[in-house]
Specification:
CATH topology of the largest domain: Rossmann fold
Shape: globular
Helix content: 25-40%
Radius of gyration: 23 Å
Number of strands: 22
Low-confidence stretches: none
Mean pLDDT: 88
CATH superfamily of the largest domain: P-loop containing nucleotide triphosphate hydrolases
Number of domains: 3
Length: 497
């Protein structure tokens, strides 16, 4: 018996959602059966998140019907959906930083034994779940200070301990490298064998043929196409998502200039997350940094940008040793960082787009130490237009899609005309249209003579945008590859030494 012969776990019929005069979902039909993975794809703003929130009880539909194993299903809250047997991994991390890993994994459903919280049982189960995902870390450790990738693995382990009948995975691999992604896929296969249904949302389209049994494509709040197999060419999926032909993803890479803009010599961190790193980046060069989760990539670029401490070594900018001790030092010298978590580290979500751009440029906006709303608006609006941000300047940054939020982060820093731009996971959780726009921005910077450093867990991305690639493994520099020598195999060989 195939999945198609089984009664659906979840059925949606003509699901609609209206906010005021804006209709964001237009009569969505969807079935998910036991033991199948349905990939739900679409650009940011296509309606995927709204649909997921309706299924998980976080948002109520404006119309339509849902059933769960044939019975009416209308969860009034996420708790009600969880009690029915639904688990969800959110794109935005929802861990409590001051609690331990085990406490986060079992938040709201602590194990009990003899009338007391069974901490040992929670720790053992949490540790086992993390080990299956390749993360060997004490479940007693607090979450605060862990990398985004490790927190993502904790979120996945949390969902997998629910014994759920249906899982919604929203960008589960966005912060993961290739090895961690494959470990997750193995867990998905086990869940399928146990009859668990999965809705899989991802912008990494190359993953779809590995994991999906069916593909559903959404555009502008409607279901526009469905494929009865995951083995669909990426170009076909992309064209269904955007409604047009997409001729290319990665633009042509400019030839770097001959002189060095930034050099790193023997750089090490106090916690030994990276050790004795040496590289240089020329004017107009895109320098990629690859490696597995925990390799020290993020810690390295944060140190270069003054956000993390340096125990030894030097950062030399344009021939002058600067070795920043704070972000202010780096920014003053012309080094800016677009961080991996735009929501927590890149934006003030409940402030406007104009304010977010202005905060990073007060020295340029202010006149005699005074900033007016008109000055802020005029300054920011120019960059909103330049970067194609789809939103009003007065609109809060938290109301934007992921791609537009990333454009705001880019706009606020590129307004400073930096010498070095460091991009940590620049397209994490961003659709193909916005991703292509960001790649164009990277190449524009290179043509202007800016040195660009790109950290990415997406191997196709780091290969597609870089003149050279440094591979890190366990905090060490495993090697630097020229573009002509870099491929999936050569990078992974260095990443796993």
């Amino acid at each position: 018996m195939t999945a198609q012969d089984l009664t659906p776990i979840l059925s949606l019929r003509q699901i609609r959602k209206v906010y005021g005069s804006l209709q964001v979902l237009h009569g969505i039909d969807l079935d998910v059966r036991p033991g199948e993975v349905v990939a739900l794809l679409g650009e940011n703003g296509a309606g995927k998140s709204t649909l997921s929130k309706i299924i998980s009880g976080a948002v109520q539909p404006s119309g339509g019907d849902m059933t769960w194993f044939g019975a009416p299903y209308a969860p009034a809250s996420p708790r009600a959906a969880m009690d029915a047997g639904l688990g969800m991994i959110h794109q935005e991390l929802k861990l409590l930083p001051q609690l331990s890993i085990a406490e986060n994994v079992f938040m709201g459903r602590y194990l009990m034994k003899g009338g007391r919280i069974d901490r040992r049982g929670m720790e053992e189960r949490a540790h086992a779940g993390l080990q299956r995902l390749g993360l060997d870390i004490s479940p007693r450790r607090v979450v605060e200070g862990l990398s985004t990738a490790k927190q993502q693995l904790i979120e996945i382990a949390k969902a997998m301990t629910l014994n759920a009948r249906l899982l919604i995975l929203d960008e589960p691999t966005a912060a993961l490298g290739g090895e961690e992604t494959q470990l997750l896929f193995r867990q998905i296969e086990r869940l399928k064998a146990d009859g668990v249904g999965i809705i899989y949302i991802s912008h990494r389209l190359d993953e779809i043929r590995q994991v999906a049994d069916r593909v559903v494509v959404m555009r502008d709040g409607a279901k526009v196409q469905e494929f009865d197999s995951g083995n669909v060419p990426v170009r076909t999926i992309v064209e269904a998502m955007v409604g047009r032909s997409l001729e290319r993803m990665f633009p042509a890479i400019p030839v770097p200039q001959t002189d060095v803009m930034i050099e790193v010599r023997d750089l090490s961190s106090p916690a030994r997350t990276f050790n004795n790193i040496n590289f240089s980046v020329k004017r107009g060069e895109v320098f990629g940094i690859a490696g597995l989760v925990g390799a020290g990539r993020t810690e390295l670029v944060r140190a270069i940008a003054g956000a993390d401490p340096i125990s030894s070594g030097e950062v030399i900018l344009d021939g002058v040793t600067i070795t920043p001790r704070s972000p202010r030092d780096a920014i003053r010298n012309g080094i800016v960082l677009v961080p991996e978590d735009r929501k927590l580290q890149g934006l003030v979500l409940d402030h406007s787009i104009q304010e977010n751009i202005g905060y990073a440029n007060l020295d340029r906006v202010a006149r005699r130490g005074v900033v007016t709303s008109r000055q802020m608006s005029q300054f920011a609006d120019a960059y909103i237009g330049t970067f194609g941000v789809k939103g009003r300047g007065s609109q809060n940054a938290g109301e934007l899609s992921g791609g537009n939020q990333q454009k705001v982060v880019l706009a606020k820093w590129l307004a400073r005309k930096p010498k070095v731009v460091v991009l940590d996971e620049p397209t994490r959780g961003i659709d193909v249209g916005a991703r292509s726009s960001i790649y164009d921005t990277i190449m524009d910077l290179a043509r202007e003579g800016v040195a660009v450093i790109v950290v990415s867990s997406d191997l196709e991305e780091v290969l597609g945008v870089s003149n050279r690639i440094m591979v890190m493994a366990q905090g060490k520099q495993a090697g630097i590859l020229d573009r002509r020598d870099a491929n999936d195999v050569s990078v992974m060989e260095l990443a796993t030494i």
